[in-house]
User: Fold this.
Amino acid sequence: MSSHSKPLTQLPYSDEATRFLARPPRLFINGEWTPSSSGNTVAVIDPSSGKEITRIAEASEADVDRAVAAARTAFDDSRWTGLAPTARERLIHHLADLLERDADKFAELEAIDNGKPKAFAAAGDLPFAIANLRYVAGWTTKLAGETIEPGLSPEGTFHAYLRREPIGVAAQIVPWNFPLSMAIDKIAPALAAGCTIVLKPAELTSLTALRLADLIIEAGFPAGVVNIVTGRGSVAGERLVRHPDVDKVSFTGSTAVGKHINTAATETMKRVTLELGGKSPVVVLPDFDADQAAAGAAQAIFYNAGQVCVAGSRLYVHSSIFDKVVEGLASHASYWAPRPSLDPDAHMGPVVSQGQFDRVMGYIEAGTKAGASLATGGDAPSSDGGYYINPTVLVDVKPDMGVVREEIFGPVLVAQRYDDLDDVVRQANDTPYGLAAGIWTHDLGAMHRLASKIKAGTIWGNTHGAVDPLMPFGGYKQSGIGRQQGRAGVEMYTELKSVIIRL
Ligand code: NAD
Assistant:
């Protein structure tokens, strides 16, 4: 039987995962597991089956206050910054070691919770998270100030220098598409800079963040340095971004919620980093092999079922090879046909939830109603209750259609043709977003010209989606504020202090 005629039925969980799911719903505050004050919980659904598999605690405002108080105390009494930088470096490396040890278990849990294929979590999310921790560990001993000779005073009369200090308590709010690696992307640089943390995972996918708390305890981090509160954005998230004892908010999620958070955080002038949505263009030049381009474009949109902020969701192909690339996309779609997340043959899983399923199918319907044609997909395979959507490519689209302008966050690509480079630059930039772009060509001159003209925080050439802990990541325009990763990402958790002393 070919993998695509097998029924879409989730596979049994390991004993380890089953034991984890049987735990009572708890928050992780001040180094301890604690129930929510209200006793309220949120259901956890396996998107591959549509069935409830456990419940997580729903933090109330009072629970968030407890977590912020723990982080505040841990920052103010210097139990974290008071450690030697080399000791903090060792602890972060230790956490990376433990994550490496348990990588297979984390990959399974991520697959169960989010719907992504376990093999993809094991090959992508986990190695990225581990490398990220190892990279930032080194910054604990390398963030440095600077001495400066004051310009308005004769030499020797003043001593002036810059200090880089941790901001304080960081509230970190993450989405559901890469739950663990997004959590590490937040926690790691904040720890390296010397901040203490309250992390709120997405209500749809909190399991790996909770499992991470086990490793934070085992690694030996001082209590209160990292706190993890599960719960709803409208309650726990809202309280975090307004809390007067929070100094910094780092948020990854939708542009709509990001704008709201930016406004809310202004009340107490919190430092804010926002990693938001995208509608990233993929541009194929006429010299590029059509089948290779189709394979690349398919991977750019169907990886993680298109639930990727940098998904290559708008394809622009030169008219001379447009039809060939679209044909190629249709043939590559079978590789990406959705399978349950624990199936070893899975390359793409279901989308994360019933709500996301309805939203994506709604976009496909609206697109075809507005005049777009389906080159492939557009429907949902029958299953035992999971949220599976076939890889979909829409053609005959117009620049003003919702499917071209809005972030769908599902396995749906809109393909358009262009005739010259100025035209494609204009089309690529015709969006309120500016997160990423992909360019496919062997013409180096054209590659660099496009790389400089497309307004996006990351440009990929002849690849798509490559992220690296060393490379700053973030958005132009409405795709965000600030950068994560690299030195810039660590510095986002610091304040610069000028010290000027008369001698
Ligand atoms: P979302 O904005 O709905 O939720 C993200 C997080 O914010 C969740 O933890 C949620 O509980 C919380 N939240 C919701 N309302 C809140 C409020 N009022 N106050 C505080 N917190 C609140 O996004 P999502 O649906 O989970 O994720 C998908 C979105 O995330 C997409 O738009 C995607 O592009 C974006 N994303 C961006 C990046 C990036 O790095 N730029 C990475 C991944 C995902």
The first strand starts at residue 27 and ends at 29. DSSP finds 16 helices and 20 strands in the chain. The two ends are 83 Å apart (CA to CA). Residues 118-139 form the longest helix (22 residues).
